[in-house]
Amino acid sequence: MPHLIAPSVLAANFGQLDHAIEMLNQSATDWIHVDVMDGRFVPNISFGFPVLHAIQKVAQKPLDVHLMIEHPELYIEQFRAGGAEIITVHYEACPHLHRTLQQIKACGAKAGVALNPHTPVSFLSEVIQDIDVVCLMSVNPGFGGQKFIPHTYQKIKELKTMIQEKGSACLIEIDGGVNLENAPLLLSAGADVLVAGSFVFNSPNPVQTISDLKQLSF
After folding, report:
1. At the topology level of CATH, where does 4-214 sit?
2. Coil, helix or strand for 18?
3. Full-model pTM
């Protein structure tokens, strides 16, 4: 299937968030990536439920909600009610990961798991068939605009092999430092979904930048 583009609204102008979402609606965007940070699991605070509800009212693309928070299981149903169609939790924040994945699926959302740069993909071998999306962090989570970590390419290849060997339909999402230079390499390694924040929203023409990412071949 064609790769998907999921611009991260963390890099948008919060004072004109509705305009940013309208722009994404009119672009080649596939998913709208929403980073939720609690100031504890990562050293930053971002969106909460009121902002998510505001995005939901305007968005015409699926909301890909990435929970960089402690105890995400306490809030799954609320994020689903707020419009999340994909809910991604961090492996590092979930001592009972299988249970949390089932909780996400039970409320009607697709279940994602994010891995920090230091976490091996092998840790997901026992649950990969229960996961819809694995989000590989290609920067350390918490802030936008960071430098891409090259070891991500190897992790994608390892994860792709695992997915194929286990017969999983899981998609591989890359989050952090994605641009037109490394995107073809990410796709050729096996990535399915590219998250781009600063690269999109800091560009002179975000709609064209999204189109350029979408039309990449490898």
Report:
1. TIM Barrel (3.20.20)
2. helix
3. 0.96
